[in-house]
Amino acid sequence: MKKTLLRGLLNVLPLVLSIWLFWSLFESLDKVGNFLFGLFHIGKLFKGAGFLLILTLLFVAGLLFSVSPIAWLYDFIIRQLMRFPFFKTVYSSINDIASLISSDNKNKGQQTVLVRQANDSYVIGFIMSDDMPAPLTAALPDGDWVPVLFPLSYQIAGVTTLVKREDLTVVDWSFEEAMKYNLTAGISTPKNNNDKTQKETDDTADKPV
Protein backbone atom coordinates (compact mmCIF):
# COMPACT_ATOMS: atom_id res chain seq x y z
CA MET A 1 0.00 0.00 0.00
CA LYS A 2 2.83 2.38 0.85
CA LYS A 3 4.46 1.77 -2.54
CA THR A 4 1.16 2.39 -4.32
CA LEU A 5 0.63 5.69 -2.46
CA LEU A 6 4.20 6.73 -3.18
CA ARG A 7 3.81 5.86 -6.86
CA GLY A 8 0.64 7.92 -7.04
CA LEU A 9 2.30 10.86 -5.28
CA LEU A 10 5.34 10.83 -7.55
CA ASN A 11 3.15 10.79 -10.66
CA VAL A 12 0.55 13.33 -9.54
CA LEU A 13 2.78 15.81 -7.69
CA PRO A 14 4.74 17.10 -10.76
CA LEU A 15 1.47 17.64 -12.65
CA VAL A 16 -0.21 19.44 -9.74
CA LEU A 17 2.80 21.66 -9.05
CA SER A 18 3.15 22.54 -12.76
CA ILE A 19 -0.54 23.47 -13.02
CA TRP A 20 -0.32 25.50 -9.80
CA LEU A 21 2.78 27.35 -11.03
CA PHE A 22 1.25 28.27 -14.38
CA TRP A 23 -2.05 29.21 -12.76
CA SER A 24 -0.25 31.47 -10.27
CA LEU A 25 1.60 33.14 -13.14
CA PHE A 26 -1.67 33.58 -15.02
CA GLU A 27 -3.35 35.12 -11.96
CA SER A 28 -0.45 37.49 -11.33
CA LEU A 29 -0.31 38.75 -14.92
CA ASP A 30 -4.09 39.02 -15.03
CA LYS A 31 -4.03 41.27 -11.94
CA VAL A 32 -1.34 43.47 -13.49
CA GLY A 33 -3.39 43.75 -16.69
CA ASN A 34 -6.54 44.64 -14.76
CA PHE A 35 -4.56 47.28 -12.88
CA LEU A 36 -3.56 48.80 -16.23
CA PHE A 37 -7.20 48.73 -17.32
CA GLY A 38 -8.09 50.57 -14.11
CA LEU A 39 -5.67 53.37 -14.95
CA PHE A 40 -7.84 54.11 -17.98
CA HIS A 41 -11.04 53.70 -15.95
CA ILE A 42 -11.93 50.45 -17.68
CA GLY A 43 -13.73 48.00 -15.42
CA LYS A 44 -12.94 44.31 -15.22
CA LEU A 45 -14.08 42.80 -18.52
CA PHE A 46 -13.75 39.05 -18.06
CA LYS A 47 -11.42 36.54 -16.47
CA GLY A 48 -8.16 36.58 -18.39
CA ALA A 49 -8.64 39.99 -20.02
CA GLY A 50 -5.70 41.40 -18.07
CA PHE A 51 -3.57 38.41 -19.05
CA LEU A 52 -4.40 38.96 -22.73
CA LEU A 53 -3.52 42.64 -22.36
CA ILE A 54 -0.09 41.77 -20.95
CA LEU A 55 0.55 39.31 -23.79
CA THR A 56 -0.48 41.97 -26.32
CA LEU A 57 1.85 44.54 -24.74
CA LEU A 58 4.72 42.06 -24.75
CA PHE A 59 4.09 41.28 -28.41
CA VAL A 60 4.06 45.00 -29.25
CA ALA A 61 7.26 45.45 -27.26
CA GLY A 62 8.87 42.64 -29.26
CA LEU A 63 7.92 44.41 -32.48
CA LEU A 64 9.27 47.72 -31.22
CA PHE A 65 12.61 46.18 -30.22
CA SER A 66 13.03 45.01 -33.81
CA VAL A 67 13.19 48.68 -34.84
CA SER A 68 16.74 50.02 -34.63
CA PRO A 69 16.00 53.44 -33.02
CA ILE A 70 13.92 51.84 -30.24
CA ALA A 71 16.56 49.17 -29.59
CA TRP A 72 19.30 51.83 -29.53
CA LEU A 73 17.31 53.98 -27.08
CA TYR A 74 16.68 50.99 -24.82
CA ASP A 75 20.38 50.04 -24.83
CA PHE A 76 21.29 53.66 -24.05
CA ILE A 77 18.94 53.73 -21.03
CA ILE A 78 20.28 50.40 -19.77
CA ARG A 79 23.88 51.62 -20.09
CA GLN A 80 23.04 54.68 -18.02
CA LEU A 81 21.31 52.60 -15.34
CA MET A 82 24.22 50.17 -15.23
CA ARG A 83 26.29 52.94 -13.67
CA PHE A 84 24.48 52.21 -10.41
CA PRO A 85 26.20 49.18 -8.80
CA PHE A 86 23.07 47.72 -7.18
CA PHE A 87 21.03 47.94 -10.38
CA LYS A 88 23.92 46.45 -12.36
CA THR A 89 24.12 43.43 -10.02
CA VAL A 90 20.37 42.72 -10.06
CA TYR A 91 19.88 43.38 -13.77
CA SER A 92 22.90 41.30 -14.82
CA SER A 93 21.73 38.32 -12.75
CA ILE A 94 18.18 38.40 -14.11
CA ASN A 95 19.40 39.00 -17.66
CA ASP A 96 21.79 36.02 -17.49
CA ILE A 97 18.99 33.71 -16.31
CA ALA A 98 16.66 35.02 -19.02
CA SER A 99 19.36 34.38 -21.62
CA LEU A 100 19.71 30.78 -20.46
CA ILE A 101 16.00 29.99 -20.89
CA SER A 102 15.56 32.00 -24.06
CA SER A 103 15.21 29.75 -27.12
CA ASP A 104 16.55 32.54 -29.34
CA ASN A 105 19.84 32.62 -27.46
CA LYS A 106 20.39 28.89 -27.20
CA ASN A 107 23.36 27.58 -29.06
CA LYS A 108 21.99 24.99 -31.46
CA GLY A 109 25.44 23.39 -31.58
CA GLN A 110 25.48 22.29 -27.95
CA GLN A 111 27.49 19.09 -27.84
CA THR A 112 27.47 16.35 -25.21
CA VAL A 113 30.96 15.15 -24.31
CA LEU A 114 32.75 12.92 -21.83
CA VAL A 115 35.78 14.19 -19.94
CA ARG A 116 38.17 11.56 -18.61
CA GLN A 117 39.22 11.89 -14.98
CA ALA A 118 42.49 10.89 -13.32
CA ASN A 119 41.04 7.63 -11.95
CA ASP A 120 39.81 6.55 -15.43
CA SER A 121 36.24 7.62 -14.68
CA TYR A 122 34.29 10.00 -16.95
CA VAL A 123 32.21 13.09 -16.30
CA ILE A 124 29.37 14.20 -18.59
CA GLY A 125 29.79 17.76 -19.81
CA PHE A 126 28.49 20.05 -22.53
CA ILE A 127 30.27 22.26 -25.03
CA MET A 128 28.06 25.36 -24.94
CA SER A 129 30.11 27.47 -27.33
CA ASP A 130 33.12 27.12 -29.59
CA ASP A 131 34.13 30.75 -29.07
CA MET A 132 36.88 31.44 -26.56
CA PRO A 133 37.37 34.98 -25.17
CA ALA A 134 40.62 36.57 -26.26
CA PRO A 135 42.01 36.97 -22.69
CA LEU A 136 41.60 33.24 -22.04
CA THR A 137 43.11 32.28 -25.38
CA ALA A 138 46.13 34.47 -24.64
CA ALA A 139 46.60 33.05 -21.14
CA LEU A 140 46.24 29.35 -22.00
CA PRO A 141 49.01 27.19 -23.52
CA ASP A 142 48.82 26.44 -27.22
CA GLY A 143 46.00 24.09 -28.18
CA ASP A 144 42.38 23.87 -29.25
CA TRP A 145 40.66 24.75 -25.99
CA VAL A 146 36.89 24.75 -25.52
CA PRO A 147 34.69 25.68 -22.54
CA VAL A 148 32.91 22.64 -21.11
CA LEU A 149 30.00 23.11 -18.69
CA PHE A 150 29.36 20.66 -15.88
CA PRO A 151 25.82 21.63 -14.74
CA LEU A 152 24.78 21.32 -11.12
CA SER A 153 21.14 22.43 -11.12
CA TYR A 154 19.19 22.78 -14.36
CA GLN A 155 21.67 25.17 -15.96
CA ILE A 156 21.24 27.71 -13.16
CA ALA A 157 24.48 26.61 -11.51
CA GLY A 158 27.47 24.82 -12.93
CA VAL A 159 31.22 24.68 -13.30
CA THR A 160 32.87 25.82 -16.52
CA THR A 161 36.13 24.03 -17.24
CA LEU A 162 38.51 24.74 -20.12
CA VAL A 163 39.48 21.47 -21.78
CA LYS A 164 41.50 20.63 -24.86
CA ARG A 165 39.25 19.32 -27.61
CA GLU A 166 41.56 16.34 -28.14
CA ASP A 167 40.87 15.22 -24.56
CA LEU A 168 37.10 15.08 -25.10
CA THR A 169 35.00 12.11 -26.15
CA VAL A 170 32.09 13.29 -28.26
CA VAL A 171 28.76 11.57 -27.52
CA ASP A 172 25.95 11.37 -30.09
CA TRP A 173 23.27 12.31 -27.56
CA SER A 174 20.80 15.20 -27.55
CA PHE A 175 21.46 18.01 -25.11
CA GLU A 176 18.03 17.68 -23.45
CA GLU A 177 18.26 13.93 -22.84
CA ALA A 178 21.87 14.11 -21.66
CA MET A 179 21.05 17.01 -19.32
CA LYS A 180 18.13 15.09 -17.81
CA TYR A 181 20.30 12.03 -17.31
CA ASN A 182 23.17 14.04 -15.87
CA LEU A 183 21.06 15.92 -13.32
CA THR A 184 19.16 12.88 -12.07
CA ALA A 185 21.93 10.26 -12.35
CA GLY A 186 19.75 8.29 -14.74
CA ILE A 187 16.73 8.07 -12.43
CA SER A 188 14.43 9.99 -14.80
CA THR A 189 15.50 8.05 -17.90
CA PRO A 190 12.53 5.90 -18.98
CA LYS A 191 13.35 2.24 -19.37
CA ASN A 192 11.48 2.01 -22.66
CA ASN A 193 13.93 4.51 -24.16
CA ASN A 194 16.80 2.17 -23.39
CA ASP A 195 14.84 -0.78 -24.77
CA LYS A 196 14.08 1.19 -27.92
CA THR A 197 17.74 2.10 -28.36
CA GLN A 198 18.77 -1.52 -27.85
CA LYS A 199 16.13 -2.69 -30.34
CA GLU A 200 17.33 -0.20 -32.94
CA THR A 201 20.89 -1.40 -32.39
CA ASP A 202 19.85 -5.02 -32.82
CA ASP A 203 17.84 -4.24 -35.96
CA THR A 204 20.81 -2.42 -37.43
CA ALA A 205 23.09 -5.35 -36.69
CA ASP A 206 20.65 -7.76 -38.40
CA LYS A 207 20.51 -5.74 -41.61
CA PRO A 208 22.72 -7.03 -44.45
CA VAL A 209 25.68 -4.84 -45.28
Automatic annotation (TrEMBL):
Membrane spanning stretches: 12-29, 49-74
Source taxon at top rank: Bacteria
Pfam families named in the record: DUF502 (PF04367)
Tagged with keyword Transmembrane: yes
Region (Disordered) location: 186-209
Keywords for this protein: Membrane, Transmembrane, Transmembrane helix
Keyword Transcription: no
Biased composition (Basic and acidic residues): 193-209
UniProt-listed PANTHER family: COV-LIKE PROTEIN 1, PROTEIN LIKE COV 2
Protein name: DUF502 domain-containing protein
